[in-house]
Specification:
- It contains eleven helices and nine strands.
- β8 and β9 form a beta hairpin.
- The protein is globular, with a radius of gyration of 20 Å.
- It has 308 residues and is α/β, with parallel strands linked by helices.
- 50% of the residues lie in helices and 16% in strands.
- The protein folds into two domains: 94 residues, no CATH class; 207 residues.
C-alpha cells in the first residue's frame, strides 16, 4: 500500500514538473510576436524532436507506411512532423490573433475556407450531422471556423495524458471551441443526446482503439473506433469530412467536403465495418497528400512493442 502511494505521488510530481515546464515555455512564447514565436518553436522542434524516443517510433511507422521511400525521405517527413507539432502548440497561445477569417471579407487573410456552403447548410438545416477529421495540420481551427458561422458543434476529443496539461488545454478549448466531450466512458451517450436534439457532432477518427472494428490503414491492420458508424446507424445523420492544411507563410486552409455516402448492408442498415474502413481510406488520402502534417509518433498500428 505504501509503495503504491509512493509510485502515485512520484507520477503526480513528474506530471506536475512536465506541465510546469511546458506551460512556462508557452507563457514565455506569448511575450513574442506571434509569427516569430511560431517560427522559433518550429526550428527548435525540428532539432529536438529527432532526439526523443518518439522519433524512433515515427520512423518505424513511416517505414511500414512508405516502404518505397528512402530513409532520407522518411526522416524529412518525421522532421516536418515535429515542426508541425510545435506550431500546433504555439498556435494555441496566439489563436485569437491567428484566426482572422471573416466570411464577409474580400481580402485574403491567414485563414481560408473551402466549403463555406456546407457550413451554412448545416447551420440552417436543423438536422443532426457529424463532421469528422484527423490529426492533420492545425485541426483545432475547424471548430473555431464552425463558430464563426454560428454553427454549434459538440466535439469529442482525447485529453492529454498529463492531467495538469489536460486541464489547461480543456480550458483553452472551451473558450474558443464550443462544447467539448472528453473521450471516456459516457461520451457516446452525450453525443447521442446531441444528435437526438438535432445538433452537430465533431469527431477525430484516426486514433488507435483497442476494441474497435478490424480495418486497414496504409495497408496495415488497425483497429478503428466504430462510434461514428453506430451513431449514423441510430440517427441516420449526414457525415461530412473536414481537414486543416498548412500553407506556406504560416497560413491555413480549412476544407469541408460534401457529405459522404455511407456503406449499407443488404437490409439497408449501416455497415459498421465498411464505414470504419471508409473513414480510414479518407484519412489516408489526406495523409498521403501532406505526410509531414500528420502525427506519426502515435502507435496507430499497435507496433510499439516490436521496438523493445
Amino acid at each position: 500500500m505504501v509503495l503504491t502511494r509512493l509510485v502515485i505521488a512520484f507520477k503526480r510530481a513528474q506530471h506536475w514538473l512536465v506541465a510546469a515546464a511546458v506551460l512556462s515555455l508557452l507563457r514565455l512564447i506569448s511575450l513574442l510576436p506571434a509569427k516569430k514565436a511560431i517560427e522559433f518553436v518550429d526550428r527548435m522542434a525540428r532539432r529536438i524532436g529527432p532526439l526523443t524516443p518518439r522519433h524512433r517510433l515515427a520512423l518505424f511507422n513511416l517505414k511500414k507506411a512508405y516502404p518505397e521511400k528512402t530513409e532520407a525521405e522518411r526522416e524529412q517527413i518525421a522532421v516536418d512532423m515535429w515542426g508541425n507539432m510545435a506550431r500546433l502548440a504555439a498556435e494555441y497561445v496566439f489563436l485569437d490573433k491567428l484566426f482572422d477569417f471573416d466570411p464577409e471579407s474580400t481580402e485574403p487573410g491567414m485563414i481560408e475556407v473551402e466549403g463555406i456552403e456546407y457550413f451554412t447548410k448545416l447551420r440552417d438545416s436543423g438536422k443532426p450531422f457529424i463532421v469528422f477529421t484527423a490529426h492533420t495540420g492545425n485541426f483545432e481551427l475547424l471548430p473555431v471556423a464552425a463558430a464563426t458561422f454560428d454553427l454549434d458543434v459538440m466535439a469529442l476529443f482525447r485529453p492529454p495524458n498529463n492531467p495538469y496539461i489536460a486541464r489547461k488545454v480543456l480550458a483553452t478549448r472551451r473558450t474558443a471551441m464550443g462544447h467539448l466531450v472528453p473521450s471516456r466512458a459516457g461520451a457516446a451517450f452525450t453525443l447521442a443526446r446531441r444528435l437526438e436534439a438535432g445538433g452537430g457532432v465533431g469527431m477525430l477518427v484516426d486514433q488507435k482503439f483497442h476494441k474497435g472494428a478490424q480495418t486497414t490503414f496504409f495497408g496495415l491492420e488497425a483497429r478503428t473506433n466504430p462510434l461514428l458508424a453506430k451513431l449514423v446507424r441510430q440517427f441516420e445523420c449526414e457525415v461530412y469530412p473536414a481537414r486543416s492544411i498548412r500553407l506556406p507563410g504560416g497560413r491555413h486552409r480549412l476544407v469541408v467536403e460534401a457529405a459522404i455516402e455511407i456503406p449499407r448492408n443488404a437490409d439497408g442498415s449501416v455497415d459498421v465495418a465498411a464505414t470504419s474502413q471508409m473513414l480510414n481510406d479518407k484519412v489516408e488520402s489526406w495523409v498521403r497528400e501532406y505526410p509531414g502534417q500528420w502525427q506519426w509518433f502515435h502507435d496507430r498500428w499497435n507496433i510499439k512493442h516490436t521496438l523493445k
